[in-house]
Amino acid sequence: MRHLVSEAGLAGQIRVESAGTAGYHVGEPPDRRARSAAARRGIDIDNRGKQFKREDFGRYDYVLVMDRSNLDDLTRLAGSEQHGSKLRLLRSYDPEAPPGAPVPDPYYGGDDGFDEVLDLCLAACRELLQVVRREHGL
Questions:
Q1: 3-class secondary-structure state, position 104
Q2: How far is Cα 19 from Cα 55, in angstroms, rounded to an integer?
């Protein structure tokens, strides 16, 4: 998403962050296979892992998750309807995705799984960017 926002010239207006629901990889760079898949598309993903915290709900307008398990975890963490209303599955923005479709976890598969995941994320993020632009007059 950060790459798409930058390409659209909106980096100064749209803030994009990434965080996990657990602290397993806090401070670590993304998986080398993810970085390679992104680099093949001219995308730089050099951020470090962090864990999503309850107070993050107050910082962001949209909180996107990859799968139902993460959605359930963050729904419990939200603690309020106001915060919970910010939550959506990322692929819900992709008109080609079936309802409730998750982004599969490529971690235990081969390199091609990271390419597939990146393609799914980009498709959803392209549509998400259009929604953000429309809803915020950008």
A1: coil
A2: 13
- What pTM, to 2 d.p., does this model score? 0.89
Burial status of residue 128 (CB atoms within 10 A of its CB: 0-12, 13-18, 19 or more):
buried
Look at residue 24 in the predicted model and tell me its pLDDT.
78
Could you give the CA distance from residue 114 to residue 70 in angstroms, rounded to a whole number?
19
Both tokens assigned to 54: 């309850």
Q: How far apart are CA 32 and CA 38, in angstroms?
A: 10
Token output for 63: 């909180």
The Cα 18–Cα 76 span in angstroms is 19
Fold of the domain built from segment(s) 2-136: Rossmann fold (3.40.50)
Tell me how far apart the alpha carbons of residues 30 and 9 are, in angstroms, rounded to a whole number: 25
Q: Decide if pLDDT at 23 tops 80.
A: no
Give pLDDT, residue 45.
87
Residue 91 Ramachandran class (φ > 0 left, ψ -120 to 50 alpha, else beta): alpha
Helix axis angle, 111-136 to 32-39, nearest 10°: 70
Structural contact between residues 95 and 20, judged by C-beta atoms closer than 8 angstroms: no
Domain spans, the chain: 2-136
